TrEMBL record, chains A, B:
It comes from Leptospira kobayashii. The lineage of its organism: Bacteria, Pseudomonadati, Spirochaetota, Spirochaetia, Leptospirales. Residues 29-384 form the Aminotransferase class I/classII large domain. This is Aspartate aminotransferase. Pfam families: Aminotran_1_2. It comes from the Bacteria.
Length: 393, 393
């Protein structure tokens, strides 16, 4: 049977990451390849209490179909948190609960992207966004990401040459690089975007996980009418419930809700109720502090080990938050070749290739520090350092 | 800002149903307009026990990210149930867990439908399918649904005139009509489809809710290589967890999984674990028997009341299962006009219009019986009967 598939599905890059992760499930392998939050920090007992309470007090209501917009009380809670933590005024009507941030990306693609329209994306960029948007067949324009943010020269020339429908980025502690856009960089990016009709997608799953450095102001606070802001409970509560949200301007909400309804009617409502009960009965900030402290220790352990064991030519990010660190090998070295050796020595990471629109044998590597204890981090980085040293000499 | 939206989102019919349901939330209104399972039958205590057990025994694992395919043990359970209940051999690798059946429809659209390809759909048809597929901009071809199944003459001529990419139907106790395809009708439909390269989407959320009549064999058992079979736990367990599944042939699975991953990474895994624990520790068949007995009583109450209070000209379905009954007014009468009067008399139903591709002032009405007790059903149907009698005289 020919042509059974839609053209759009053929455009989606196969998840090379998925294949890599399969090779790293072996228990002997020290894996910096994952992208998971540390499961030791999940509030298991508190979630148990919240589940019981929701069923005792609300019973059938928590198990019935619900609204596509998401649980209003939860949307109000998110609105209040934006006000208290970031000084942002967000109406609960401008918040849509999504099945993880990933669904936010799909809804944006569905609602906004026509085939062949231009989508600018930071590079390296988040693979899940490339996948989600690919289904709507845009032309991607890569904007290089540096240690302080987007490459402004490329951004300016891109906006001069093309009508950019969307620009996508993870400005805080990005996956894969751990890099952030500086406030100065954001000022310039916002200025360029505000001179266009482009929508900026500010994907912020890691913003709450800042463990050092100065707080940076969101794009949403700079250009609210041109920003869609995505948030997630996956990294500060638990990922398996698949609860995220999007904040969007009035003029976009109605269509986003229609797209949401067509996609899965609504997000798992029992989970929304459990989460809201948890937020009522517990101090989320205290919980987040624990996560930050743990991840800071893990990040510090990785940075120290890199200083000790990696050859001096290797550049790397020292992230202020999040779960990832980015290492840059000398230009001629393919991190895939390093990966092949590393896996034999039972240490894994993600080679940079999948995080670029169109590049193979990139010289970059993503190192996740949130799932490995400090001692094992040192052992793993020592192994990696030896492989890299051998490789480049 | 002009042209901000994608063309595809402009094609999605606004949910007229959503608007109708808003007018019926008033507590005074006897509503046959809903489409919800009866919340009194949700196994609240059992779900509570399952939630606690999952967290006690599996803790962090149940709260972590998981695989896009869905929980393997749950997929095996579904496979076993197909074997034991329907004599069907389905490999767990051909089962994909979805965020409700609704997501199954979205994934089918994403993976299979190119713009302007033809999708045949029974008429009246399930609104959620029309919405989900609309996003992928097919041309819909309506196949009239009669009391015994699809109109075969229209089906044959449609397959002769067009290359039909997909044909969609709910062959058991359909929403909105409560009608089923007879075994003879299925034989003929399967024959026509098997002479083409068309994929038949067999959406079966109500199959387990059969309370009378003979069991009919699935399309999947007739033409497995051309069928995608959708199932759901929403009507036999609880809808708020948003857990459904799809069964698809080998050649489609890889692309469906890629589409799934791009859409929301995976379905709420905590919910999958709770559901599986519930299935391990409880007798689902016993639970389903209770639902069937309750719905049968409600259906019988509605049929008796219709016999008593509706004018004799009104035709109606007497469904063997599910949650809906379909009434057909004399041809010149618009059920929307009847609705406007009914809502003033505090009784509601869904006028037929939204269930057709392109029709206004249809003479049909959807009556839901699963959420109203028998006594109230009689009162509501009495009111409706009076309105209809006045209207047609």
């Amino acid at each position: 049977m020919n042509h059974i598939f839609s053209d759009r599905i053929s455009d989606v890059p196969k998840s090379f990451l998925r294949e890599i992760l399969k090779t790293t499930v072996n228990e002997d392998v020290i894996s910096f390849a994952g992208g998971l939050p540390n499961r030791d920090l999940f509030p298991i007992e508190e979630i148990k209490k919240a589940s019981v309470k929701v069923l005792d007090e609300f019973g059938g209501d928590a198990l019935q179909y619900s609204t596509s917009e998401g649980y209003l009380e939860l949307r109000k809670w998110i609105s209040n948190r934006y006000a208290s933590k970031m000084g942002l005024s967000v109406n609960p009507d401008n918040i849509l609960i999504t099945t993880g941030s990933q669904q936010g990306l799909d809804l944006i693609g569905k609602t906004l992207i026509n085939e062949s329209e231009h989508v600018a994306i930071e590079e390296p960029g988040y693979l899940g966004a490339i996948q989600a948007f690919s289904l709507y067949r845009p032309r991607f324009l890569a904007i290089p990401l540096h240690f302080d943010g987007l490459d402004l020269e490329t951004l300016r020339s891109t906006f001069q040459s093309y009508t950019v429908k969307l620009i996508y980025g993870v400005p805080n502690f990005q996956n894969p690089s751990g890099l952030s856009h500086s406030d100065e960089n954001r000022d310039e990016v916002a200025k360029i975007v505000s001179n266009s009709k482009t929508i900026l997608v500010e994907d912020d799953p890691y913003g709450e996980l800042q463990f050092q450095g100065e707080k940076r102001r969101s794009y949403f606070s700079r250009i609210p009418d041109q920003t869609i802001l995505l948030g997630s409970f996956s990294k500060i509560f638990a990922p398996s419930l698949r609860i995220g949200w999007m904040v969007a301007p009035d003029r976009l909400m109605e269509k986003l809700i229609i797209a949401k309804q067509a996609s899965d009617l609504h997000t798992n409502y029992f989970g929304q109720r459990i989460l809201f009960q948890y937020l009522l009965d517990n101090d989320l900030d205290l919980h987040i502090t624990k996560i930050r402290e743990k991840y800071l220790k893990q990040k510090d352990a990785m940075v120290s080990a890199i200083e000790k064991y990696f050859p001096k030519e290797i550049k790397y990010s020292n992230p202020d938050g999040g779960m990832f660190l980015w290492a840059i090998l000398p230009e001629q070295i393919s991190s895939r070749a390093v990966f092949d050796l590393a896996i034999k020595e039972k240490v894994a990471f993600v080679p940079g290739d999948p995080f670029y629109i169109n590049r193979t044998n990139a010289n970059t590597m993503r190192l996740n520090f949130s799932c490995v204890d400090e001692e094992t981090i040192e052992t793993g980085i020592e192994r990696l350092g030896k492989i890299i040293s051998d490789f480049i000499r």
